[in-house]
Amino acid sequence: MANTKKQAVLRDGAQHSPWQTGLTLMDEAGVFDPGAVYDALIVGGGITGLTAALLLQKAGKKTLIAEAHTPGFGTTGGTSAHINTFADTTYSEAESAFGEAGAQLFAAAIQDGFDLIKTNIEELKIDCDYEVKNGYLYAETEEEAKMLNDIFQGAAKVGVPVAYTAEVPTPVPFKKALLWEGQAQFQPLNYLQGLQKAFIALGGVILQDTLITGITTAGDTHTAESGEIKIKAKAVAYATHLPPNINVLNFECAPYRSYVLAVKLKDANYPDALIYDSQEPYHYVRTHRIAGEQLLLVGGLDHKTGHEDAEKAFAGLEEYTRKYYEVAEVAYRWSSQYYVPADGLPYIGQMPLAADGIYCATGYNGNGMMLGSVAGQILAGLISGKGSKYQKLFSPGRVKPVDSFTEFVKENADVAYRFVADRFGIEETDSLKSLAKGTGKLVEVNGKKVAAYRDDAGTLHALNPVCTHAGCIVNWNSEEKSWDCPCHGARYNIDGCVLTGPATKNLAKV
């Protein structure tokens, strides 16, 4: 008798997110025709990839998604799932770098991403806990209050509704606050499966466990390779954060980790809102019901990937939560990755220095639900020949504004530092014998550096610590049980297998 047991939804880390609870992978994937030339190949099955693929399939384009793992395995499966009309890059900052017209377009793009999610939920009847909430942003210091004034003025100037308020449903004392009505939240993996179901029903195809390692172009046809699999397409879009291998976007975006707790409270003090402070890095809270239980989601303490201690970040987040709320239990804790663009806006469109018809989308900052959705819309428009009113503003080949040059230099100087310094940062006294069960560490063995992890059974997993993407030295992430590259954000599991790009080759075993 065939095994009909459903496979649980996985993600790119050891920690379990609440979105995975009770969810199984969909069986439907369509039928791949290896002899066909597809109109579009979408690399990546997150919110950007599935949004683009569904829109293209609706437009009559024969579309295939190649996903290195399973749909939602990456950032979409680890998001805190806020849907906002504002963004990490403020509208004042956008105006400073791209002018008033650029700020207006940025605001319109955020709104389009928001509206596209809502429209898909309504039209496809997706059950994903979508709820409209008020959003609050508050200041605890005079300096933060000045920043709030700037945020208010920038939003008002581009027509985004915002107002000052004296009331915020938070136990944190504050000096000033803004109210953003009509924000929203949802269950991202349920939403993603709704898109997947609609895409397959229209004749789309999804290839899971298919890591695209390279693309060659002959005439107007691109051939993507994954092991022995070859996929031919007229257009290719990388919906993978950074496109794989070495490219100019490695120098345009910096990888960051973001942390979230989902806690049960002793009392009923669950806020019915999306709430953000103005600290750097900031904190945010919201409420979500998972498997019949109400939970408080608390997130923040973001830092560059591979640069800080994940345990310390979670400890700091829990300390903050317990300071203001009566915590009964920490039910979930997880982290996720996003990319910060050098000039504040995402890169969406024709990929620089690539063959015509190869596109990419990255640099969403912490606003991946809205910008990932509108990126899918932009990619679909470009591939179908309709274009997009946002294509110039978000072009990956745009001239970098002067305002971003300092950030560009800082991030890439850091990459150069990590490339050199991490090679000399391991003490000679470290050895494999001192490695406790369930822990990982960079150690020195016979004069060579090794990325070593000893599992709970005592088995040693030893790897070459040199990232296969650009040669930096990976660092151990004790919470997600992964080896993370501090330069461009590639991540590997305990056996060295690629979890997230831009690397396409596994770490070598030693």
Automatic annotation (TrEMBL):
Keywords: 2Fe-2S, Disulfide bond, Iron, Iron-sulfur, Metal-binding
KW S-adenosyl-L-methionine (keyword) present: no
GO CC terms: cytoplasm; membrane
Entry-linked Gene3D superfamilies: D-Amino Acid Oxidase, subunit A, domain 2, FAD/NAD(P)-binding domain, Rieske [2Fe-2S] iron-sulphur domain
Rieske domain location: 427-510
UniProt xrefs under InterPro entries: FAD-dep_OxRdtase, FAD/NAD-bd_sf, Rieske_2Fe-2S, Rieske_2Fe-2S_sf, Rieske_Fe-S_prot_C, YhfW_C
Pfam families named among the record's database cross-references: DAO, Rieske
GO terms of molecular function: 2 iron, 2 sulfur cluster binding; metal ion binding
Protein's recorded name: FAD-dependent oxidoreductase
